Amino acid sequence: KKILVIPGDGIGQEVTTWGQKVLTAVAANYHHQFTFEEGIMGHVAIEATGDPLPEETLQKARNSDAILFGAIGHAKYDNDPTLKVRPEQGLLKIRKELGLYANLRPIKLFDELLEASSIKPEILRGADILFFRELTGDVYFGEKKRTEDRNTASDLMIYHRYEVERIARKAYEAARTRRKKLCSVDKANVLEASRLWREVMQEIAKEYPDVETEHMFIDNAAMQLIKDPKRFDVVVTGNLFGDILTDEASQIAGSMGMLASASVGDKVGFYEPIHGSAHDIAGKGIANPLASILSAALMLDISFGLKTESQRVIKAVEATLRQGYRTMDIANKHTENEFIMGTDAMG
Amino acid sequence: KKILVIPGDGIGQEVTTWGQKVLTAVAANYHHQFTFEEGIMGHVAIEATGDPLPEETLQKARNSDAILFGAIGHAKYDNDPTLKVRPEQGLLKIRKELGLYANLRPIKLFDELLEASSIKPEILRGADILFFRELTGDVYFGEKKRTEDRNTASDLMIYHRYEVERIARKAYEAARTRRKKLCSVDKANVLEASRLWREVMQEIAKEYPDVETEHMFIDNAAMQLIKDPKRFDVVVTGNLFGDILTDEASQIAGSMGMLASASVGDKVGFYEPIHGSAHDIAGKGIANPLASILSAALMLDISFGLKTESQRVIKAVEATLRQGYRTMDIANKHTENEFIMGTDAMG
Ligand SMILES: CC(C)[C@H](C(=O)O)[C@@H](O)C(=O)O
Ligand SMILES: CC(C)[C@H](C(=O)O)[C@@H](O)C(=O)O
Q1: Closest Cα of chain B to A193: distance in Å?
Q2: Which of B88, B103, B138, B283 is least surrounded, with the fewest CB atoms within 10 Å of its CB?
Q3: Which residues line the pocket of ligand 1, CB cutoff 6 A?
Q4: In Gene Ontology terms, what is one molecular function of this protein (chains A, B) (predicted)?
């Protein structure tokens, strides 16, 4: 199997090392042949080539079986909204070019982290949500405009029927293998794109009568997710709402530093932590490597069908947490028997 | 003072009675002259006239000094996204027609409700956030399109400089009277409308050097709000992001049933609970009337400048909670000395 590793920006560099090490260990222990290549993307790629997604990286991506990605973004661009070339364009472009339309974000709390969240343990215990975020449409990819006087700016929020259909089916298929509940999130009381979304969801729902379907407005969903996370099984939503809800849901898993994601679609699978480049802690060796390690576990499962190996990695993460090892972000200030570790020690 | 009361749909009917009763009591006790008129809007207005915002209601609104509104929406429309005439159009139109561009949503936890939330008390204690949600722009009001084959739908997310400027100034002025911290929320790493938003915010920030400004991406904000609500003082954001964040923030106040809002702009002030029409509990007499009562308190303060009277209402709510009276939504299953009340008893 050919794996392309793209560490990207900020803590992407340090955490991705650990995802890759775990893949190497799995290959050795289970006698698989993984070959690794490296690619650049984001701010680091702009610095090196002027392009956030150099053609060379895209070629390598097309020729690989799976991609392990780190993070993207840099404060320089955040502070100057007028810059034309921006790191995030690299990530958006690779998602589009590789047809990665379904972004799976599993939210599950490790028992050991029950106390690490700002949410009460009794609300969290047993929560297990699988998000399907549509990843190649919506206001992310609709036409962007700025008037010549620069005083008016717009982005087109747009969805096509086929885009909703294909993510709907993926989500329903997954719901069938789980608790058979699907919640579709939109803002159909205000947005036309959401009304199309809801119409199509209602149609596809008929193909899955064994799955219980619920429609929820995004504002309500943002509330229910914190109020009662256990009510959700599979959640399917658009690109923008999915971005917001899954970051919010990180509190259900204790920390953003725990969350992995898989983007799938046409062929190549793309695996990345949900967290960003976190430049404030980058290079300090304190970032949580578990999201990258769990992204590697998702790759083993989804792209390579290696379920045993994938479970082995998850068990190893569990064991590490059970022994009390913690990075800063998941440390519980009220407990004694925890050992705060750096990125490498934790890995 | 002329007050227009628009109960609207669902629980709007039962809770608004209580906001009005409190205003009547204040008038009697403090010797003010409040006259009340009633107007229809939403599903009830469609049923009666075919129009979610009849011209008569709009005229009454223009001629009033302040408006007390209940809630809007009905499952019939939620379940059928193809319906052309929809209750929410009434609310959106009145916001636009009255120039209600600034929606203030104060999020503050009554000490008595510290245990009612799904978030840990130690995370919540002391949280006090004032949201400024822009209310007459964004993807809510940009052009909506549906192709003839009905397979593609879009909404234009659009902002003009003057829209950002005026809400920015309102938010900064408020920050000056509080803890002098302002957080502007956008998605400038992806959206052009957000880049304009951030540019303008950065400019206006220079006029308020005494206020500490922070810019945050919406996904991160949705997370931080739950992780550490105390880090926020004033939050200013666009129409869509504001809709999502403030519903989410309801968990900081224990329940959606506690949250009031004020929409201001050109002249008339518009006061409403953040909660929706909640048809599942409508007519059962179990809805929490406090959001409507607290909306009345906001009206006294903001539209009429009656600070003493406004504080008196808030104190009465506090006293009621202290005595242990609760509606279902704020009941704490783990406590003994609470009395679960219906809407009327609670009012
Ligand atoms: C970095 C950014 C463009 C990206 C997104 O908004 O999709 C990130 O927040 C994510 O969730 O993967
Ligand atoms: C009912 C709906 C149109 C409305 C909105 O989205 O603005 C509501 O959610 C609100 O927050 O006032």
Answers
A1: 5
A2: B283
A3: A 72-73, 88, 91, 243; B 189-190, 219
A4: 3-isopropylmalate dehydrogenase activity
pLDDT in tens, A234-272: 999 999 999 999 999 999 998 899 999 999 998 999 999
How many other CB atoms are found less than 10 A from the CB of residue A316? 15
Work out whether strand B2-8 and strand B35-38 pair parallel, antiparallel, or are unpaired: parallel
Q: Which amino acid is at A333?
A: K
Closest atom of ligand 2 relative to the B103 alpha carbon: 12
In chain B, the domains with their CATH numbers are 1-108+256-347 (3.40.718.10), 117-253 (3.40.718.10)
Mutate: best of A135, A154, A184, partner B, most B CBs <10 A: A154
- Give the Å distance between the CA of B257 and the centre of ligand 1: 33
Confidence (pTM): 0.96
Active-site residue list of A: 140, 187, 219, 243, 247
Q: How is residue B47 annotated by DSSP?
A: H
Which residues have C-beta atoms less than 6 Å from ligand 2? A 189-190, 219; B 72-73, 88, 91, 243
- What beta strand segments (E) does chain A contain? 2-8, 35-38, 66-71, 102-108, 128-134, 144-146, 152-160, 181-186, 212-217, 234-237, 260-264, 269-273, 325-326, 339-340
Q: Mean per-residue pLDDT for A219-227? A: 97
